[in-house]
Specification:
single chain, eight-stranded antiparallel barrel, alpha+beta, Porin, two-stranded antiparallel sheet, 235 residues, 2 domains
């Protein structure tokens, strides 16, 4: 009986400790604190008051807390209820935005192996696997081949754009593609790879800085590094 009397006399300390364990046993402490600041504050305050309560002079009999001790316990209960309630009625954190399903973009590129060095690029990407960040990827490159007469090499390729990591909120993709290349009546194969980063401007509009390596069997200049900036729409 003495054991249960001692246990009950420190019930506020045990209750506060249990509240701390339950509240912070979450996958992310930071996320929990951000979503339930009132609850966290109430728990910490309750723990502090319970610690004071446990070390303060006791005024009790064999039936548990009485007199000033009981008043302290009742007051502590009302304080915890008043502070914890707002924590349970808060608005839930905003849902994670839906992934981008389609991307359309076009722009200019700098091709050091072209004459002139300005090239044009257009892309289309469609999400095929949300979990892995994989997109079906189509790209068209128009690369100047000569000035006089003016001719271009057109590469039309398809492949995969794969998300590999993120820098802050900006994902980094590696687009790899293969297809056909033609200049006039000459037709061959084309291949390209590199890195691309969609950066949100406003709403669904984005810019796509990219660095790629392009190879064409009819281009006649080997592997050509292409640095570009595309402007596009994501939905």
């Amino acid at each position: 009986m003495k054991y249960f009397t001692t246990l009950f006399s420190h019930w506020t300390s045990y209750a506060s400790l249990l509240s701390l364990v339950i509240s912070f046993e979450t996958p992310s402490i930071n996320a929990y604190i951000g979503a339930h600041p009132h609850t966290v504050f109430a728990i910490l305050l309750g723990a502090a008051l319970a610690a004071y309560h446990a070390t303060a002079p006791k005024d009790k009999d064999s039936n548990g807390p009485t007199g000033p001790q009981a008043v302290k316990a009742i007051a502590l209960g009302f304080v915890l209820l008043a502070l914890v309630q707002p924590g349970f009625t808060q608005t839930a954190p905003p849902a994670t935005p839906a992934p981008i399903a389609n991307i359309y973009a076009a722009g200019i590129s700098f091709d050091s192996g072209a004459s002139p060095a300005i090239a044009g690029t257009g892309i289309y990407a469609h999400l095929v696997n949300d979990g892995s960040g994989t997109y079906a990827f189509t790209v068209v490159d128009v690369l100047p081949a000569s000035v006089n007469p003016f001719t271009v090499t057109t590469n039309f390729s398809g492949g995969i754009a794969q998300k590999v990591f993120s820098i802050g909120k900006v994902p980094i993709f590696v687009p790899s593609s293969a297809g056909i290349s033609y200049t006039g009546t000459n037709t061959g194969w084309a291949w390209s790879t590199g890195a691309m980063a969609p950066i949100k401007i406003k709403g669904n509009w984005r810019i796509f800085p990219n660095v790629r390596v392009v190879k064409s069997s009819v281009g006649g200049s080997g592997y050509r590094p292409v640095v570009g900036l595309l402007f596009g729409y994501a939905e």
